[in-house]
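Run LysR family transcriptional regulator through structure prediction, thanks.
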Amino acid sequence: MADWDIRKLQILRTLRERGTVTATAEALHMTPSAVSQQLTNLSKQLGVELLRAHGRRVRLTDAARLVLHHAEAVFEQLERADAELAAHIRGEAGEVRVGAFSTAVPALVVPAVTALRASRPGIAVRVREAEAQEAYELLAAGEVDLALSLAAQAPSAVDPRFTRVPLLADPLDVALPGDHPLARAEGLRLADLAAEPWIFGGSGPWSDITRGACEAAGFRPHQGHAAAGWPAILAMVGAGMGVALVPRMAAVPRDGVVMRDLCADRPVRHVVAAVRKGAEEGAAVATVLTALRTAADGRR
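Sure, done. The structure for LysR family transcriptional regulator is below.
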């Protein structure tokens, strides 16, 4: 197989365009002897005669024209590669894989992706729903580039593998049955609901968050029912079976349920993004992080 040398092919192409060795040397900031030497070497590498003397000038042979005909496709592809690489460096192109917990997908990831489609159409975002533990396992394994989770579920801020980026303090609102005596009370506080049956998971982070918020308000919640999914929790609230804390990102309108924000003791959960240490400097990842921050700012 012939030894194709892109640099030498570019010299041959310039000679075809400029017509003389001297003009080619000036265009490429080379000496005429260097141009001649490079083209002689290319002729030997390809095993064909590329130039013929024509008076005081040189003329391309039919073999040289054939070589350049096929080389044009290579030059065109290299131009595309240069353009795409430049866009990648500027954060305008590339693929970013995001692992995110369920409520963060519609609340933060989808708005960020929608905005990027308009402003950075060259960036492809691939989303994978994953709860915190799985998301960080995927991140550590290199299967996602960015993980969204709750700060309470994230690895330590001093974990040397990851860089954590705060995104949002998501308020926790209380879900009440529509006919509850406090459904429209002014100045509602969490402590006002101390005697109510509460609905939350039997274990796990949401159980910890609910218990922690209630204990910070001065009481231990009585768990009337255990459920982990928001549709099940809100359905039970709507049926008058109890009350629940619901993150604002997860709240959806439901008949028979009144969502109330709380006053002075309103709890929040902190949403963070994490990347592998150093990856935040990658332009495409940084662009997606910026879009996520913007989506988070829109919820404040």
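The first helix runs from residue 6 to 18.
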